[in-house]
Amino acid sequence: MENTVKNPAEYGYCKDGKVYLKGYLEYPDRLIGVVRNTEEEALQYFVNRFAIAENKVNLLFSQVDEAQNKGSYLTKLLQLRKNLVEFDGLGNFVPLLHKLDELELQLRELILNNQIKNLEIKRALIEEANQAGAIDDWARATDVIMEIKTKWLKTGPVDKALQDGIETEFNGIVDNFFVRRREYYAEKNRIIDEKLAQLQRIVDSARALRYEQDVDAGFQKVKDLQREWKTISQVPPKKQSMLWKQFKRSSDFFFERYNNVKGIVSKPRIDPRAQQMMDMTTELERNFPDQPNIPQTAEKAKAYLVKWKELSTLAKSVDRNLAERFRNICDKIFEMNYLLRVISYRHPALHEKPRIEQLKIMINQMDYMTKKEKNELDSFISESQYSGQMNDKLVINKINTQKRKISMKETLLVEFKKELETLLGQ
Predict the structure, then answer these.
(1) InterPro entries in the record, alphabetically (predicted)?
(2) Among 47-51, 124-128, 385-389, where is mean pLDDT lowest?
(3) In whole angstroms, what is the distance from residue 318 CA to residue 327 CA?
(4) 118, 171, 180: which is closest to 149 by C-alpha?
(5) Three-state SS at 101
(6) Which residues contact 230 (CB under 8 A, 6 or more apart)?
(7) What integer best gives the mean pLDDT of the chain?
(8) C-alpha dihedral over 302, 304, 306, 310, to 10 degrees?
């Protein structure tokens, strides 16, 4: 940067081996250094140092110009002005100080405007907090309050004279909300504890009735306990489930004794939805061997898949073995349908051929499709590993689906070969 000081003597002088800065504005002459060699060199040294002061001022203006939160530089400006009047250098400090004065006015005006705007925002947030505190749903109210609190923290300060008051008002609203929330959940937990105590009492009463000698009186008491149980609601599901299992175990034990004493043979109740799922599975298994009608069976299997999902969400429990049977027979039907559809392009009259010839054609085609799909799956796995997608949920699902399809093709292939061996051995 070109030095703006052309005549050092205009701003300073040497006396008794020392260097002085001439007074300016309200500041008197000030000692800034000593003469080490010649007076000219000493003056020039401090003239060169004046460039440092100019650069600091220019840097501050550049930073303010680029900053979004310009008001945050006010403190830095005030510190820089203090440093300038104490800076050891020779030059015209007056323009630099005037520039800082002008910038200070701009920043203070900007800060004032921001404080007014922040005050408007915070007053609006106080109103929002008051409204949120009146929301009936405590969980939703808490989310809204926390969102408002985040906005409050992100909003800048207001005028110092108002800062403490508005902060106290907002914090009071938030604190009051959380006090009421704590009291609400404390009361809710107290009610839950009372209900759990009632359920525990019912469980203990049922346990005490297991060996009741007067089975008629015991029967009525257990029935009364069952009716009382139904009147108690809104307790934690896990705890209720645990207590229900204990209650049901004691009740079932008593009713079994009651039936034995009365000579009653009880028939197990079957969930009608579970029965419907069993019927669907059995029907598909019965229809599968009807090879010519596989397309119709496949359409029925698709409809049953949708129905199965509906029933499985409603049924109390689904037998795992039954679910596996249903899934296998559906896969089997879909793979057989696909095989026959592919074969029909070259052998439209397949079902009119002798069974041995049908099996040979089906074995050849199924063997070809199985090997082809295995190769495609291996390639897909290699590509997924190379691209780092093996942990992707969609990729994993696709791999598992393809493995299941290949496994079913292999199962059908084994069945075809066994049937062919049987026919050839006759």
Answers:
(1) DUF349 (IPR007139)
(2) 385-389
(3) 13
(4) 171
(5) helix
(6) none
(7) 89
(8) -170
Q: Give dist(CA 197, CA 188) in Å, integer.
A: 14
How far apart, in whole angstroms, are the C-alpha atoms of residue 89 and residue 19?
10
- At residue 175, the 3 state secondary structure works out as helix
One-letter identity of residue 91:
G
Task: State the amino acid at position 176 in one-letter form.
Answer: N
* Rounded CA separation 134/169 (Å): 17
Residue type, 101: D
Between CA 148 and CA 304 the distance in angstroms is 50
Among 235, 168, 159, 166, CA closest to 202: 235
Alpha helices (runs of H) in 345-392, residue ranges in sequence order? 355-387
| CA dist., res. 193 & res. 204, Å (int) | 16
CB-based contact 284:329 (threshold 8 Å): yes
DSSP per residue, 294-311: HHHHHHHHHHHHHHHHHH
Q: For 232, which DSSP code?
A: -
Q: What is the dihedral of CA 349, 355, 361, 363, to 10 degrees?
A: 140
130, 136 contact by CB (below 8 A): no
Q: Residue 258 belongs to what H/E stretch?
A: helix 237-262
Entry pTM = 0.48
> Which of 97, 106, 116 lies closest to 64 in space, CA to CA?
106
Q: Is residue 268 very low, low, confident or very high in pLDDT (cuts 50, 70, 90)?
A: low
Q: Determine the Cα–Cα distance for residues 242 and 56; give it in Å rounded to an integer.
A: 73
- In the block, tokens 């006090």 appear at 179
Going by the DSSP 8-state scheme, the letter that residue 122 receives in this structure is H
CA distance 36 to 81: 29
User: How many CB atoms sit inside 10 A of residue 34's CB?
Assistant: 11
Query: What burial class does residue 380 get, using C-beta atoms within 10 Å of its C-beta: 0-12 exposed, 13-18 middle, 19+ buried?
Result: middle
Q: Which residues pair with 21 in a beta bridge?
A: 12, 30
Contact between 19 and 43 (Cβ < 8 Å):
yes
